[in-house]
Amino acid sequence: MALRTEWPQLARELALGRLSPQPGLPEGVQRQLQALLTPDAARAAELRAECARGFEGILLRLWPQLEVVVVRMVHGSERLYCNSLLQAECQGLPFYCPFYQAAGALLGVNLWPAEPEPRFLLCPDWAFCEFLPCLANKEPQTVLLDELLEGREYGLVVTAQPGEYRCCTGEVLKVAGFHKQCPMVEPVRRESQTLSVRGEDIPEEQFCQSLCRTLRIWPGARLIDYACVESSLLGDFSGPCAPHYEVFMELQGLRDLSEEQRYKDGSRQRPPHKKKTVSFSSMPHDRKINSTAACISLMLEGCELKKVRSNSRMYSRFFVLDADMRSVRWEPSKKDSEKAKIEIKSVKEVRVGKKTPVLRSNGLSDQFPDECAFSIIYGDNYESLDLVASSADVVSAWVMGLRYLVSYGKHSPEAPGTGHPSLRTSWISSVFDLADLEKSGCIPVSRAVQLIKALNPGMKTSTIELKFKELQKASERPGTEVACDLFVEAYCELCTRPEIFFLLVQFSSNKEYLGVKDLLMFLEVEQGMEGVTEEKCLEIVSKYEPSKEGREKGYLAIDGFTRYLLSADCSIFDPQHRKVCQDMAQPLSHYYISSAHSACLLEDNFWGRSDISGYISALGLGCRSIELVLWDGPEGEPVVYTSPSAASCVPFRAVVGLIDQHAFTASAYPLILCLVVRCSAPQQRLAAQCLRKTLGEKLYLEPPNPVASYLPSPEELKGRILIKGKKLPPTCEDSEGEVSDEEEGWELARRLGQEDREAPEGGGLRRVRLSRELSELVSLCQAVPFQDFESSRRGQRYWEMCSFSEVEAGRFANECPAELVSYNKRFLSRIYPSPMRIDASNMNPQDFWKCGCQMVAMNYQTPGLMMDLNAGWFRQNGACGYVLRPAIMREEVSYFSANAKDSLPGVPAQLLHLKVISGQNLPKPKGSGAKGEVVEPYVCAEIHGIPADCAEHRTKTALQSGDNPIFDESLEFQINLPELAILRFVVLDDDYIGDEFIAQYTIPFECLQPGYRHVPLQSLAGDPLPHATLFVHVAITDRRGGGKGHRRGLAGRRGRRVREYTSTKATGIKAIDEVFRTATQPLREATDLRENVQNALVSFKELCGLTPAANMKQCILTVSTWLLHSDSAPSVILNLAEQYPPMEAQGPIPDLLRKVLTAYETMIQTSRTLIESADAVYGKLIQAQQAGMDFHKELHRIETKEGLRGRKLQKALETFAWNITVLKGQADLLKHAKAEALDNLWQIHNAGQSCGIGRNRSASPEPSRLQAPLEPIPETDGGGDTASC
């Protein structure tokens, strides 16, 4: 097992001839082993190649002369482990147990290594042995060696010579025969290893054999390990002498012991009364829902569902749709048969999930998953029939069928599948006719397969061929040709994705396609698109609908809808971020900068070869900072390399020429060349001449502006190349001089074994010679050694920058994160990897981005999680290599703790609601040939950001799912600093040894698009995987704020949630504290205004049966659906003539509708109060914030006057920054809350007009007119000298 996980490290150690530290290994032994090792690159390469092939039989491949594997005696689960090795790593090798030991004594030897079952010859001189016959009817007496009988079993008693003690070992031996009068024995079992919880004494061997026999009914299942404990599930009901056990098993080849997995090889007959279920699986023999006809067919057949009552009890009932499709009935029931039914015309709504008070009650909420529940809202009193199905597939079928039937209203639909061909069937038939070149009515199977592959790229040929064989066999039409009807059937079954069809039916107002208004509603309500017009919808139909009839009529059928959802127009990545979309006029220090370390290397740091293509790759990915390590070249010209092999160097002249050619191919913004100079002064002059001559006007050589306080912006430096390096002091007038060398340079030298022999006396900074020509090329990025934060605050100039080792920067990030954040507001910092990363692995860039470090140098040649984060992060601003840092990390006066474990002051936390629905065309993991075609994937969703945001959730494993698994699982994350958060999807194959990587995709949180989206999956190296996607739903809402808590059981109490208010803190300076104290009441008012609206929104959405992620338009449309499905005229109207439209009842209304109206009225009133009061409260917060900022320039003088020093001074500075941040943040939150309230009003007007319950229509207010923006809080320009600000 260790070889499977540790082989990369073993290969590195073989190549280097170095033994890494081994925990538990004595130091002396470590030195002896190290002395025996020599570098062996060939053997290391051989090890890598063999491990890449897989691990089955790897021992014989690595050691061809190996003849046998020596093991000790094994029993029970240990034998299972040996069997696992025999079928994997040790394939083709016999196992040999040479000795038999018990109770610390050596008792026998195995003289028959070729036999599979070990037999041992007992040696009389090694220990004195006695034997207890295994008799059940009387107390046994011990016998000696010469009294043993062949075929009998004996317990072993040993008196060992060293201590002369006598003990019963618990070993049971069977006498297999005699060898020259000496008995041969076979170990049978250990009496001590029994299940004996209540005195039953079941031997382990017997239990293991029974378990293995039981598992045979699941073909392909192989037991790897097990553990058994007494079960507490039955409690006292199990009785005093009838124990029950829980068995935990580790299996290979099967992980689901469900009924559906039994006898799946067809060798045994299935149980005759297997319950029928609906599955969305793409397995050939599973029933698949690919149309509303299939849904209604299932409903007509009926199935068992659990009916949930208000007393939290569940009853199994058989539900069926009447033959005339006008009613749903259930049986058995105590009601009259005419009462145990619901008429389709009375159905107001069908809800998926726990969306009613009954299903949300505490007594049921944990008994079944959300996706297995649904509710039918029916009747004039809006009653709910709450149901629980056996699976989410059954729920989807019933919900699809019911919504389809409800959409007909009073009309009587014909039976599904009758009448004229559907839009889709007509199109598929026309495609078939075009392929029928001979016009014979049939086409060859091979042509039909290629045709479906062309229509559905990514589908496997074998899957299509299998489907045709299945349909030909079912229709008794075998042969090499396919008729049109069979082709249509195969296409519909193969190319219909049920989850997308379910979505289409949900929004379609007629049959099985989306009209223009349906599509417009989907784009606005579900996808969050603004300003969508019918013309835009027609463009989408024209672009993606494959049928000519559909394009002419403006219909988007299931195939066009699927194509649209898979297109780049519907990608999860916001297209606005595909181009430069951030403010590029900020100082250079306000941006994260994509940086490369050792870009010339193609592999790791020691044996990896250098190649010029590494620079092309890095620049092509938008890298804006490249490291060049200059060494003396053999031909008098400098070279670039980081490997000790001279053959791997790259001429400096060639590198500069390449940079000149590719510097601005992917990005027009400035490129920074980080020179680490290890060459002599003459070759430095040649390097400087080469840079000037080759790069010419691109080199930025203008001296820094001494009056400015910050670096120029990327916009000002467009198309320029900056040199980062050492600079001679102004006092030096010679052609060359000495400068201090950065630690990075010496670490590189030590790594290459070329450090100077003489170190400076006293342990000071080392000195190197620098030519004036190279020094003059350095302008805005002058490298200086870092001393401490106080020295930098007082003496460092804005054009000077420091480099930190990974270890040093990590220490600062943990011990003084606030000071590191403050330092990075004015100065650039570069973080480089530790020289201990000889394998060119990468550090986690998030550890340093959270502290504002701009340049985190990455090994671009090493794929994995860290490079995924880096590549994904820099994709958000047009992949230009620059990303603007969060405002809280840029503002001159702000409080930010990089290691915050909770929400930040003034930063609105958000909730990410992520539903992972399905996967498409997932590839097999590399090196997984032993598993055959079986891929059992699951999805991990990871959030990377500040510590408070870092989280990981995973879906369930999709068992036996093929390439297109259904997950249908909801995940939720709280994001406290959205601007620094990254979402990473990882698809893994659930494997018993180690989960294997399948694919990944990494995206900044700010780039997420809401709604139903496809995630384009990538390989470990970041390359796109053709047609491999995840289908997800994304919703982003504000953090939970004041929703009513559900009652917990009968004893639950209603308690008022204590509202938390953000307040300012005391600085210890009276005049400043008095200013901040004036903001106490406005802060409370701002919180109350926001929380009241949030509480009202949550209550209204709950009563509408929607989640907190729903928008206001969805709420109004839901209410209108209830009303419009009534036989009478709408009993509630929206008065759209008013700015705050009331929802007015027209006569008596049911209790549920009355509660909805009350919640709506509360929401409107709280929104009105917020909108009308926000400006005044906002002004008070602004006034207090600006009054506080007036003290900023005089802060140090005031603190000196107050006598604050040391820790008290630092605390006062931090508190001042905290207060300013709180005031600005709370004002921003109030501004955003007002904008959202205005947007809700606009959605109410828009939805009321479109759904038919609006009256007295006035012109719908434009969002831009409603959302009159509050004045933004100004940022103070200029540099500050406050340590924490």
TrEMBL record:
<dbReference type="InterPro" id="IPR015359">
    <property type="entry name" value="PLC_EF-hand-like"/>
</dbReference>
<dbReference type="InterPro" id="IPR011993">
    <property type="entry name" value="PH-like_dom_sf"/>
</dbReference>
<dbReference type="GO" id="GO:0032228">
    <property type="term" value="P:regulation of synaptic transmission, GABAergic"/>
</dbReference>
<dbReference type="Pfam" id="PF16457">
    <property type="entry name" value="PH_12"/>
</dbReference>
<dbReference type="InterPro" id="IPR011992">
    <property type="entry name" value="EF-hand-dom_pair"/>
</dbReference>
<dbReference type="InterPro" id="IPR001711">
    <property type="entry name" value="PLipase_C_Pinositol-sp_Y"/>
</dbReference>
<keyword id="KW-0442">Lipid degradation</keyword>
<feature type="domain" description="C2">
    <location>
        <begin position="890"/>
        <end position="1019"/>
    </location>
</feature>
<keyword id="KW-0597">Phosphoprotein</keyword>
<dbReference type="Pfam" id="PF00387">
    <property type="entry name" value="PI-PLC-Y"/>
</dbReference>
<keyword id="KW-0378">Hydrolase</keyword>
<keyword id="KW-0807">Transducer</keyword>
<dbReference type="Pfam" id="PF23571">
    <property type="entry name" value="GH3_M"/>
</dbReference>
<dbReference type="GO" id="GO:0016042">
    <property type="term" value="P:lipid catabolic process"/>
</dbReference>
<feature type="region of interest" description="Disordered">
    <location>
        <begin position="1253"/>
        <end position="1285"/>
    </location>
</feature>
<dbReference type="GO" id="GO:0007214">
    <property type="term" value="P:gamma-aminobutyric acid signaling pathway"/>
</dbReference>
<dbReference type="InterPro" id="IPR017946">
    <property type="entry name" value="PLC-like_Pdiesterase_TIM-brl"/>
</dbReference>
<dbReference type="InterPro" id="IPR000008">
    <property type="entry name" value="C2_dom"/>
</dbReference>
<dbReference type="InterPro" id="IPR000909">
    <property type="entry name" value="PLipase_C_PInositol-sp_X_dom"/>
</dbReference>
<dbReference type="GO" id="GO:0004435">
    <property type="term" value="F:phosphatidylinositol-4,5-bisphosphate phospholipase C activity"/>
</dbReference>
<feature type="domain" description="PH">
    <location>
        <begin position="297"/>
        <end position="407"/>
    </location>
</feature>
<dbReference type="Pfam" id="PF00388">
    <property type="entry name" value="PI-PLC-X"/>
</dbReference>
<dbReference type="InterPro" id="IPR001192">
    <property type="entry name" value="PI-PLC_fam"/>
</dbReference>
<keyword id="KW-0963">Cytoplasm</keyword>
<dbReference type="Pfam" id="PF09279">
    <property type="entry name" value="EF-hand_like"/>
</dbReference>
<dbReference type="GO" id="GO:0051209">
    <property type="term" value="P:release of sequestered calcium ion into cytosol"/>
</dbReference>
<dbReference type="GO" id="GO:0005737">
    <property type="term" value="C:cytoplasm"/>
</dbReference>
<dbReference type="InterPro" id="IPR055377">
    <property type="entry name" value="GH3_M"/>
</dbReference>
<dbReference type="GO" id="GO:0046488">
    <property type="term" value="P:phosphatidylinositol metabolic process"/>
</dbReference>
<feature type="domain" description="PI-PLC Y-box">
    <location>
        <begin position="774"/>
        <end position="890"/>
    </location>
</feature>
<dbReference type="InterPro" id="IPR001849">
    <property type="entry name" value="PH_domain"/>
</dbReference>
<dbReference type="Pfam" id="PF03321">
    <property type="entry name" value="GH3"/>
</dbReference>
<dbReference type="GO" id="GO:0048015">
    <property type="term" value="P:phosphatidylinositol-mediated signaling"/>
</dbReference>
<keyword id="KW-0443">Lipid metabolism</keyword>
<dbReference type="Pfam" id="PF00168">
    <property type="entry name" value="C2"/>
</dbReference>
<feature type="region of interest" description="Disordered">
    <location>
        <begin position="262"/>
        <end position="283"/>
    </location>
</feature>
<dbReference type="InterPro" id="IPR035892">
    <property type="entry name" value="C2_domain_sf"/>
</dbReference>
<protein>
    <recommendedName>
        <fullName>Phosphoinositide phospholipase C</fullName>
        <ecNumber>3.1.4.11</ecNumber>
    </recommendedName>
</protein>
